[in-house]
């Protein structure tokens, strides 16, 4: 009798230690996770918001990254003396290896009739601090600019962007004349790139084309550093192993059967923004479905065929002091125990912290 109770007591103690370890590891990952904060810089009479990266474990590399990001944004100001720079940015891509910054603003020269509108993409290698150009994605010597323009002309209906508040009197002929492969009018995304040019005196959202990488596969250099960084969060279903790190989280378990990856689960905290909503049927009973904001899709490992799937089924270990509203709400959260697989009805994760409710 006493022997049995002692065994049960030891088992409960070990379970408690393991659970405490899980939460401790999650908190450690959270505090060491790469984050992008905002600082300001005065240029002329203007004010520009500058990204500041934190959480890089190498101080010298973090300093280099931040210096290069700041220099790249300040260089967007007009070259004339006393020109000002105003603007803000958003993160357009972040998979732990590659950071995309989308800066929107304007530069004004004293005495000029109109400001110069700025809408630029900056793509930073978080492992080296280098800033990439579009040419770094393609086979050396290929006319990638001509290929992209030809594809945009051929597939205008499929590629053309239609966004809220869009300035859409933008003609294709203007894109052909003004966009070049050296332009910063470029945003790299998970499965496509957005290319555009800025009409003179235009305000508001700028039109453009979303060109799938699949349509550029024949000229992409698949061995290039940029391509590898773009794909750093994509799961290789036939070779992924326990202990491997993707998008900053570690593979905890792999269930592979024949040629199918049934399930892969990751250990590590991931910060996400999106909309949560209670549903009576999530495919696995009632619960919360979290729709991930597009800019955050790259922050988690994905299978190629599920890269665009934004739904995430949430389990919760939160106490009564932290509860998601049942109605659709835009929130910022931290998840752990993220799981995906080819035979899953939906991706799933454990909600471990709510950072912000009712985001705008």
Set out the fold topology.
Elements: H1 2-32, E1 35-43, E2 46-54, H2 59-74, E3 84-94, E4 98-108, E5 116-125, H3 144-154, H4 156-159, E6 166-167, H5 172-178, E7 186-188, E8 192-195, E9 205-206, E10 209-212, H6 225-230, E11 245-246, E12 249-257, E13 260-267, E14 270-279, E15 287-292, E16 311-316, E17 329-340, E18 347-356
How would you characterize the overall build of this protein?
The strands form five sheets. This protein has a five-stranded mixed β-barrel with strand order 14-15-16-18-17. Strands 3-4-5 form a three-stranded antiparallel sheet. The chain is built from six helices and 18 strands. It starts with a helix and ends with a strand. The chain is α+β, with helices and mostly antiparallel strands and 360 residues long. The protein has three domains: 1-32; 35-229, no CATH class; 245-356, no CATH class. Strand 4 (98-108) and strand 5 form a beta hairpin. It is globular. Helices cover 21% and strands 36% of the residues. It has helices spanning 2-32, 59-74, 144-154, 156-159, 172-178, 225-230; strands at 35-43, 46-54, 84-94, 98-108, 116-125, 166-167, 186-188, 192-195, 205-206, 209-212, 245-246, 249-257, 260-267, 270-279, 287-292, 311-316, 329-340, 347-356. The relative contact order is 0.10.
């Amino acid at each position: 009798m006493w022997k049995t109770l002692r065994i049960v007591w030891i088992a409960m103690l070990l379970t408690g230690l393991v659970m405490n370890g899980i939460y401790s590891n999650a908190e450690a990952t959270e505090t060491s996770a790469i984050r992008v904060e905002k600082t300001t810089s005065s240029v002329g009479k203007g004010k520009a918001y500058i990204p500041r990266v934190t959480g890089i474990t190498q101080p010298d590399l973090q300093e280099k990254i931040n210096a290069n990001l700041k220099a790249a944004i300040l260089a967007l100001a007009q070259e004339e003396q006393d020109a000002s720079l105003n603007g803000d940015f958003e993160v357009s891509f972040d998979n732990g290896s590659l950071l995309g910054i989308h800066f929107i603003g304007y530069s004004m020269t004293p005495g000029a009739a109109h400001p110069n509108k700025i809408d630029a993409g900056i793509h930073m290698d978080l492992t080296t601090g280098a800033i990439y150009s579009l040419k770094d994605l393609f086979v050396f010597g290929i006319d990638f600019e001509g290929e992209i323009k030809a594809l945009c002309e051929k597939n205008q209906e499929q590629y053309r962007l239609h966004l809220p508040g869009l300035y859409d009197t933008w003609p294709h002929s203007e894109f052909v004349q003004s966009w070049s492969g050296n332009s910063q009018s470029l945003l790299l995304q998970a499965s496509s790139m957005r290319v555009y040019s800025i009409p003179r005196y235009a305000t508001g959202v700028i039109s453009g084309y979303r060109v799938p990488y699949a349509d550029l596969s024949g000229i992409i250099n698949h061995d290039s550093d940029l391509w590898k960084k773009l794909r750093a969060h994509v799961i290789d279903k036939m070779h992924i192993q326990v202990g491997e790190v993707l998008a900053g989280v570690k593979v905890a378990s792999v269930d592979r059967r024949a040629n199918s990856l049934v399930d892969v689960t990751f250990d590590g905290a991931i910060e996400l923004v999106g909309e949560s909503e209670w549903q009576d049927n999530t495919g696995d009973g009632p619960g919360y479905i979290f729709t991930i904001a597009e800019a955050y899709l790259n922050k988690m490992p994905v299978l190629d065929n599920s890269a665009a799937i934004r739904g995430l089924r949430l389990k919760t270990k939160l106490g009564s002091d932290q509860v998601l509203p049942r109605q659709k709400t835009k929130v910022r959260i931290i998840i752990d125990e993220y799981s995906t697989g080819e035979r899953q009805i939906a991706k799933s994760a454990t909600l471990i912290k709510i950072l912000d409710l009712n985001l705008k």
